[in-house]
Amino acid sequence: QVQLVESGGGLVQAGGSLRLSCAASGRSFSRYIMAWFRQAPGKEREFVAAIWWLAGSTYYGDSVKGRFTISRDNAKNTLNLQMNSLKPEDTAVYYCAAGNRVLGSRYYVDSEYENWGQGTQVTVSS
CA-CA distance, 59 to 70, in Å (whole number)? Predict the structure, then answer.
């Protein structure tokens, strides 16, 4: 079965950068869309970014556009999220997700994804 394991979270000062990775295993992901979501305490899970594994098309949430970059490494089966110019409001648990039945227009909906990682904490101090 599909396994997703996130890494790279931590504590960083505002304005700094972090790079999250998600090691994906269990099957070929050529027909999958991969995504990052985040959830802050007391808030709903929020879409961050997504990428179609084969085509490389990307999507971003409005709050991270221009600061975060999603990418995938086909050789290593790894999903990455480069986060720059971090803000305290970026503090959350970040989750990697994978789906092969996601309707193209619903890439931002968490219930469309059937596989999830355990999450990694990102804390941005002011």
Answer: 8
Write phi, then psi, for 45 (nearest 5 degrees).
Answer: -65, 135
- Residue 13 is predicted with a pLDDT of 98
pLDDT, one tens digit per residue, over 17-45 is: 999 999 999 999 989 999 999 999 999 99
- Compute the distance between CA of residue 30 and CA of residue 106 in angstroms, rounded to an integer: 18
Sign of the dihedral through C-alpha 18, 23, 28, 32 = negative
Residue type, 111: S
For 54-67, write each residue's pLDDT tens digit. Answer: 999 999 999 999 99
DSSP state of 21: E
Torsions phi, psi for 105 (to 5 deg)? -85, -5
Kindly list the strands in the beta sheet with 78-83, ordered across the sheet, starting from the edge strand earlier in the chain. Answer: 3-7, 18-25, 78-83, 68-73
Distance CA 81, CA 65 (A): 12
